[in-house]
Amino acid sequence: MPPAVESKQTVAGVRWEIAGVKIKDYPRLAWRGLMVDVSRHFFPKEVIMAYIDQMAKYKLNTFHWHLTDNQGWRVEIKSLPKLTQVGAWRVPRTGYWKGFKAPEPGEPATDGGFYSQEDIKEIIRYAEERFVTIVPEVNVPGHSLALIASYPNLSCTQTPQQVLAGDPWNPQRTNVLCIGNDSTFTELEKVFSELAQLFPGEYLHMGGDEVTRSYWDKCAKCQQRIKTEGLKNSEELQTYFLKRLARIIQSKGKKPMGWYEKLEGGLAPNMAVMSWKDMKGGIAASQQGHKVVMTPAFNTYLDFYQGDPYLENGPFTVTRLNATYNWNPVPLEANAANILGGQGSLWTEQVAHERKLQSMTWPRALSLAEVFWTPQPKRQWENFIPRLEAHLPRLDSAQVNYATHFYEPIVSGVKDSSGALQVVLSSEIKDIEMYYTFDDSNPDKFYPKYQGQPLDIPKGAHHIRVVSYRHGKRVGREINLPLSEVEKRVRK
């Protein structure tokens, strides 16, 4: 079909024809997923359904829904109403995530939202019609500030807490559940019972990562639990928690899944894991008999910036388009039989709106779709680019935002034999022509063209501006960098 088939309006004057063909095709991996974090920023159900629509077009068949974290609880649990009355709301803040100020005295918590159980049923039906399975995640025992703000008795300190807009890593804020308190497991059983009834898929994700165990080291109840259960330390207490919650999930007829953590006491038996720091954890887990979804940060984290870091506001580092494409989710060292598949993971600290959600996902999710579908020997970066470019008009027609950063110059620095700074330009893809200026004017194809050699910097220059052209057409953004920034990029 032509790109106009994606239009949101009726299109007249187009002949809709498909050739009569037979296609034999099948995926490399069963789990071909994308994850969206709706805790850091809440997205209405219409946005989630539109996201699932785009996934389905590219045979991405698993939507991992990160429903809870420190900054918001997003799923209605009828037996625990405060989770959405309190935990779903925080004070409004706009800007850079780590710069958000704490709530002011008496400031109303008006930013947030949640999905009712009827909303969730509607979204599940919508996804099922498009052959997409939804895997819900409730992240515990860490990342639990929204839960603790709703029910302070579940923390080690049992002190009142507030849902915060920004990063909660502060010793005065308790975001870890008390494992020595049996009521913690009583309440979690209520949560996972309702999740099991809502979601028809086989997995329930329980998080389990980045636990600040220092809370447990200072908690008399947690220390008593360690003694009673014959555990060595707080690290083994985390394993105890995972095993106990895994049994609860299994009792509901579901399979437990969590983020991979290297723990002295190991993981829960029969627990599937997502390998997120790198692929080493996934390899080790697969060899130990665990089912694994590969989502290593430097290849699949869609919150990482995808262009020049000076122009981006990503909170961490870069994952360019070629990094998502040029990786193998089934490394030779892994037990391939235990690799379920892979996913792209989009954390939303710096993603406040649907258009940003889209541009952080696409086109990197297109490369992941091919990684998950196509056999490793049949994938080739150079051949992928024309296919990618053929789909950009379809995204335009569907009014889906996407990034074009893969077209843009990559600017770095070197030192010549005298120690003077020189500028080096490169690009992710072939057939890119780059034009530059040092005089702070906006370059186009009538300015000097980069010829592949380091550029000497004229005296008095303080910035370099660079633009890209491909096949005679300007593509991507203008890169405007102070030379002091280029100096930082000189390799030692």
Report on this model:
The chain contains 15 helices and 18 strands. By secondary structure, the chain is an alpha/beta fold. The chain has two domains: 369 residues, Glycosidases (TIM Barrel, Alpha-Beta Barrel); 81 residues, Sandwich (Immunoglobulin-like). The strands form five sheets. It has an eight-stranded parallel β-barrel, surrounded by six helices. α1 runs parallel beside α3 and α5 packs parallel to α8. The longest helix has 18 residues. The chain is globular.
The CATH topology of the largest domain turns out to be TIM Barrel
Category from helices, strands and their pairing: alpha/beta
Strand order of the largest sheet: 1-2-7-8-9-10-11-12
Q: What is the arithmetic mean of pLDDT?
A: 95
Helix share bin: 25-40%
Supply the CATH superfamily name of the largest domain: Glycosidases
What's the number of extended β-strand segments?
18
- At the first level of CATH, the class of the largest domain is Alpha Beta
- End-to-end separation in angstroms reads 51 Å
Q: How many discrete structural domains?
A: 2
Q: In percent, how much strand structure appears in the residues?
A: 15-25%
Poorly predicted runs? none
- CATH architecture classification name of the largest domain: Alpha-Beta Barrel
What oligomeric state do the depicted chains represent? single chain
